[in-house]
Predict the structure.
Amino acid sequence: QVQLQESGPGLVKPSQTLFLTCTVSGGSISSGSQYWSWTRQPAGKGLEWVGRIYTSGSTNYNPSLKSRVTISVDTSKNQFSLKLSSVTAADTAVYYCAREWWSGNFDLWGQGTLVTVSS
Amino acid sequence: QSALTQPASVSGSPGQSITISCTGTSSDVGSYNLVSWYQQHPGKAPKVMIYEGSKRPSGVSNRFSGSKSGNTASLTISGLQAEDEADYYCCSYAGSSTYVVFGGGTKLTVL
């Protein structure tokens, strides 16, 4: 079955760019009508949707993060990626990648990866 | 501050029923029947329990049900079991500029 796995640095310095990759296994990232999304969760806090990319390559972002976020897809590697620029301590969180359907149903999630922003 | 409002905590005894509310606005919950609910155990990824307001994914117990009235969606868990103790989050589609909003989460304690 389809599985998702996040990867990337666990520590990023303030003002630098966070870069994470989600590898999709067990199925093609470009098949179907789903979105591939990123959601984050600061320690002890709730979920915050970051953004998503459709199989066509079109993107949607959380308005509060839009100026700093870029989500892209590499179909040859069956991966999609998150880039978050000018990070601060407030961006410290567990970042999850997920499969999202048009109805807002996030039916598959990665295990999550902790990213800490600190000098 | 989260876009959708949930109670911080609810509790119930085994076998009882509980309901978790999720209050939004006419721009999200009130306008679309696209609320989903997620269960999250400590240190684990969220798991979808209800989608499109009241649909249950395959494998999710029929003890979980969803409904909506106006700007408020609700998740009801009947026949509470110890394994239901977790955090629960609601999520709604919020139109073509905001897209997706989550609630702040509710901690369910099974007494």
Q: What stands out?
A: The longest strand of chain B covers residues 86-93. Chain B touches chain A through 25 residues (CB under 8 Å).
